[in-house]
Amino acid sequence: MRRPAYVTVYDLQMRKVAYLENAFDVSYEAPMNAIWTASFSLPANDEKNMECQPLYFVEIFDGDERLELFRILKPTTKRGSDGPFISYECEHVLGTLLDDVLFLYHTVGNLGVYTRDVLQYILSKQTVKRWQLGTIEFDRQFEYNWENDNLLGALFSVPNPFPDEYMWAFDTTTYPWRLNLIKPSEQEELYIRYGVNLQGITRVVDASKVSTRIFGLGYGEGVNQLTFADLNGGKPYIDAEPALIQKYGIVQTIFVDRRFEYPETLLARCQTLMEELKVPSVHYTVDAAEIYALTNDPIDRFKSGAMVRVQDQELGVDIKARVVKVGKGDVLGQPGAVTLEIANKSQDIAGSIAELRNRMHISEVYAQGATNYDSHDFADNCDPTHPAVLRFWLPAETARVNKVALSFRVEPFRGYSRAIESAPSVSSGPSTRNTTAAGGATTPTTSTKATSVESASTSDNWRIFAIDVMQAVNMGGAHNHGIASGTKLMKEDGTSVTFVESGAHTHNLTADHSHSVTIPAHNHTVTIPEHTHQMDHTHTIPGHTHEIEFGIWEGPTPSEVQVRVDGKLISGVGSSGEEIDIVPYLSKDNSGRINRGDYHEITITPVDSLGRVVASVFTQIFAQSRGGGDY
């Protein structure tokens, strides 16, 4: 069934608006891993020119086969022998990804983040969701950095570090359109043979672009520019195989792409380039007759990315290579005339060299950074238990640390006053203090004359025990005055009583008397042995103040100090040092890089006395011009 037209127009919402029945000079080029282009023309007086608006979509057919979906970019009015016409240049709808950008800085990838995740991140930045992911046959974990790049450029950069061949494929028959990243087949899918479908062939061997040594440079500038030397035995370059160096010599080139911020990714990209550049490119331009319309055999259908075998016995040509571009100059007038570009590499060498040069333009919109010099000065008193502490910050935006040097010296301990003001206070005892010991001493008194002393005394109670001599040993004091107890006695009046023995008793006597004592003349001798005195006492201190005398007074100077950087001891520093390299002592992460976005601490401790330390730390770093504000 004949189609109504080879070109159909759609608006921005993918609504069909016109069939271009009068289209002519329909042509296209379909390069591998690049944006396809197409063109067509309409007579200037065709009313459907009004429907061919810039950025509208057009669906182009090659015979009965749907070619692809394009969008109109540039209408051009021309006059030919057949009259005026308008030519429309188009690009594949993959170019819609040029309409969106990754504004400012974006980092995606690394361990645990796979190729699909990275591609999904890029497509998520579409303003209009026209593209979705389809089949992704790679599972790499590279880290990518983009800054002010368009989505298509970011998308095409994802497989650049892959050592394997890859091919972008797409399906625009459904919406949203589907994007695939696949491994191209190694099987022969096409045959071009002299006498069958081979009409002409041009073979070019180009050794002008051969490189057997590639230097890789990434983010930064000068000595701070990224290389992969640490991953490559100290060499910032990679070499081809010794046999190729023997054959072609050492031919050097420099790959510069400041989008690379990690040496692993930079090295992988250079290795991929080496595979393309280490041998001369062999490029074939084949004019062939596409006889698919006659045979209906897929082996006669030319397509970009397919592996083709080309045979010409007369020229001695029998090669297997990949089709890197398919083009037709007139789909309607000469549907079988096809131009193929075949190369021994999936990407033409010219494309690789052009890429090396174009990176200079890309890097213009990438923020780089600058070398920064900074000095941190410090002075403080210290002692063996209170070190002088110096802390300095290393920004997270630091790309490279070039130098960190410590200088210090010790000085006498420094005081700034002699007294301080005291608040009112009372301090009280008791307290015991021993006096100092005193020696023994003998002190005679003065002599005195004899002295008589008399004194009178009034009566008093006296306890007198009357005892029987025979019972003198009776301690109770009982006695009977010689009459046995129980004796009957006659009283004067003729009555009788019974005598009862008296028990212990007292008699009250009144005896006024005086004593006379005579003390003869005498003296006293006193010997005082060695002794101390203990005294309990209290002190009361009333509230008062001391006037402060301001000034600078110096104390002792240490003879030696200990210096530690992030806890690591620097041995043999003595009491001073100049430009000591402390990079080996700074704390580092698991990959051996100095910790960024954190403080580093230096402690200087006197060994033997009070003292004062005067120190400074000098840093030279390369910092990215990212982060922060604009104040």
Task: Report what the structure shows.
The chain is built from 6 helices and 39 strands. 9% of the residues lie in helices and 42% in strands. The protein is elongated and about 200 Å long. The strands form 11 sheets. Strands 1, 2, 3, 4, 5, 6, 7, 13, 14, 18, 19, 20 and 21 form a 13-stranded mixed beta sheet that branches.
Descriptive labels:
9% helix; Jelly Rolls; mainly beta; 6 helices; single chain; 39 strands; 631 residues
What does the secondary structure layout of this molecule look like, with pairings?
Blueprint: E1 7-10, E2 16-19, E3 24-31, E4 37-43, E5 57-62, E6 65-80, E7 83-92, E8 101-109, H1 115-123, E9 131-136, E10 143-150, H2 151-157, E11 167-171, E12 177-182, E13 188-193, E14 198-206, E15 213-217, E16 237-239, H3 242-248, E17 252-256, H4 263-277, E18 281-289, H5 292-295, E19 307-312, E20 317-328, E21 337-343, H6 349-362, E22 369-382, E23 388-394, E24 398-411, E25 414-417, E26 431-434, E27 441-444, E28 451-457, E29 488-490, E30 496-498, E31 513-519, E32 525-528, E33 534-537, E34 550-554, E35 561-565, E36 568-570, E37 576-581, E38 598-606, E39 611-624
Parallel strand pairs: 9-12, 13-19, 15-17
Antiparallel strand pairs: 1-2, 1-5, 3-4, 3-20, 4-7, 5-6, 6-7, 8-10, 11-12, 14-18, 15-16, 18-21, 19-20, 20-21, 22-39, 23-38, 24-37, 24-39, 25-34, 26-33, 27-32, 28-31, 29-30, 35-36, 35-38
Please identify, by name, the CATH architecture of the domain at 369-416 and 554-624. Sandwich
**Helix share, percent:** under 10%
Tally of alpha and pi helices: 6
Shape: elongated
- SS strand fraction: 35-45%
SS content category: mainly beta
How many strand elements?
39
